[in-house]
Amino acid sequence: MIGRLNHVAIAVPDLEVAAEQYRSMLGASVGEPQEEPQHGVIVVFVNLPNTKIELLYPLGEKSPILGFLEKNPAGGIHHVCYEVDDIVAARDRLKASGARILGDGEPKIGAHGKPVLFLHPKDFNGCLVELEEV
Ligand code: CO
Predict the structure, then answer these.
(1) Percent of the chain with pLDDT over 70
(2) Does this model's pTM top 0.90?
């Protein structure tokens, strides 16, 4: 059911330092910071040949990244995103298997303008999983 790894999202305590590290130390192709107020984050996209890394930094007081950085002050992997062909079919299959969908269970438009869902980390080995319809 799941396809390509679309991205790995890493919450970072300092976006400039993290972006520069990926640019200079790791020699990656790193974009400019983009504010995404509807998701409560500032994102820097790192484009790799086979996937993307998203460096996430909190934006606003209700940012979902704030609590994560409180628990992980040095930053850490926040979620992984897998591609699916049909997000509603994927959701229904997961629900039937007993997995919990976060929020109201309806797909939302994600950071790339495509429908996404998040799965409860406790159902997936402690890892927050995002599904994106491509
Ligand atoms: Co994501």
Answers:
(1) 100
(2) yes
